[in-house]
Amino acid sequence: MLPAVAIVVPASLLAVLGWRAYRADALSLRDRFRQDQAAMVRLAAARLSEEVGRALEDLAERARARAKPGARSVFDEQSEARFRATHSLARHVFVVHQGQLIYPAPTQRFASRDERSTESDALQPSSAVTHRYIQQQRRLRRMRAVFGRALRAEYRGRLGRAARLYGIVARAVGGGRMAANGSLGLARVLRRRGDLKGARKALVSVAQAAGAKRNARGIAYKLLAHAGLVELGDRARLLEMHKRLMGAGYATSPQSRRFYLRWVVRRLRRALGRSRLTAASSTTPPVKVSAPLLSSSQLRGISQRTEALFATERFGRMLARYGVQERALPSGERTGALLVDAGTILVLRRDGQTMVGFSLDQQALRRRVGQQQRRLPPSGRGIALRLSRVGQRIDVPAKKLLHNAALPAPLGHFSLIATRAAADPVADIERKGQLRHIGMVLGLVLVLAAGLFFTYRGVRRESDLAQLKSDFASNVSHELKTPLTSIRMYAEMLQQGIAEGPDDQQRYHEVIIRESERLGRLIANVLDFSRVERGTRRYDLVEIEVDELVRDALDTFSRLADEDVADVTLADKIEPGASKHVIADHEAAVQSLLNLLSNAVKYSRGAPGVEVTLRGGHGELGVEVRDHGIGIPPAEQKRIFDDFYRAPQARQANVEGTGLGLALVRRHMEACGGRVTVQSAVAKGSRFTLWFPAARDEEE
Ligand code: ADP
Question: How far is the CA of 659 from the centre of ligand 1 (A)?
Fold first, then answer.
């Protein structure tokens, strides 16, 4: 009970203290980890904003470099393409200068130019030209009438008349819109009549004379003339048209520009298809092989550029609709973001009079977040980063949400959300820590228990030995007393003359001598034991014949024993002719044999008959002493050779003894290089054998 308490109490105390220390450790670890993670997420957020900030700075730089004094267009599609090539986060770029959206080019640019021209036509300040103006108006009316008749004639299929009337209008003095309309009509009619050359001539004249003039629907005459030339078979002109349309080559209305851009691309595609066809049917050589106008990759580039232009225009219209030029950044802020309809996010930057910005490519931004996630250090593994718009609901279970870091300006509309994607590494560390802790406590308990066990065993041995020693003292005194009493009794009888005759006297003397010899033997045993114990017993190992040993022992034994000696029989089982010489200390060997013989007699009262047998072995010779006495249980057989040990059966049978005999036999035999063995069965008898090393034969 007490030992158990001695283990359990300190062990549990240690376990509790250890656990507390461990918990504190784990908590601080978790805390540190969380701080680390938060810092990492903040860093990633800052990096994203920083990239956008850098792009804005670069854009401002480019816009400034392009700005020439007085120039309205500081930025164009090429500069945008170049900018976007280096900054993949940008989708569409815009530049506002002095509160005016100057890129993408505002679509009302053409209209305003047109207005200006009519204004300058209409408001002629000088009265001197008024007369000329009235005449001009009159002529215009006349021409309009002729033009109307030409249209009607064309409609009715009277092409000759129509051509003539159109020709009159086309040649009208002063050129102007009416003349251009006439030339176009003339070209149309001539084409119908099959006079392609004449038609082409009419169109060329329009293209050359029209300048920046536009018809009533705002379409530039030059554009119409070029389109007509294309229809007459001048396909090569398509490329030139595309180039002009992409730039501001035709001062045409935005709608017509869009329309004709699509028209040109469609035609180019058809032209490519046709040249492919001629190439495919090369088995039958075509009459006239036209060189291909453009390659398919060129066409792809053209249509991509066209689409990009449309997108930019759409973006420009959206900006205008939104009125980006009026929406200034909050005062004091240099960069910021605006959320424009349908989720477009503009990031912008102001430098003096100029404001630049671009719409964010949100997909690219997400990809960038993925890159940031991959760049996280090892402690950030298992974290998933993603972008969320501020104010948007975060559909992540609270347990998985680790951090929510708002992005600094200019990406203030976003926050970076870190969620737990894989197993929590801290939990893993904690679990390992727990296991380690439990292992340590268990180890401690084990060590404590082992210590306690060994201490207990040591103490137990000590107390056993103390018990044995005290038993030994009383046993020895008892053993000494018995012969001493006999000696004294017979000596007194002799002294008092009680003996009847010399025979009795002789017998008394013999008893006294025998008893004192027994006493001497007993004392010799004790002395020998103590000498062996102290290591001062010297062994004189010599070659002795085993017969001689046995004979000496039996002689002494017969002198000491009062009766029973006749019961000892001797047998020789050693092969005839084999050497009987052994190496031994004569006195120790005889003493050992005597001890075995006296035990055999002592422990077999009522079952007499002791047999001594000589046996041969491998390199050793044995002297076996066999009795038919009480025997020794197997559990005791190992212990009977211990110092002072007496088996309980011996005490129960009331046999006196000291527990020294066999201990001494074992030590003597070991000192002689031999051994002692026992075989025994309870109530059947025992067989002790002394094995001596055989002396080498002289012949060998
Ligand atoms: P003891 O003085 O008690 O005989 P020993 O050392 O000679 O001491 O023997 C140790 C114990 O071995 C004895 O107490 C006894 O129990 C047991 N023993 C020895 N010889 C025999 C035997 N021949 N038969 C039965 N028990 C024996």
Answer: 7
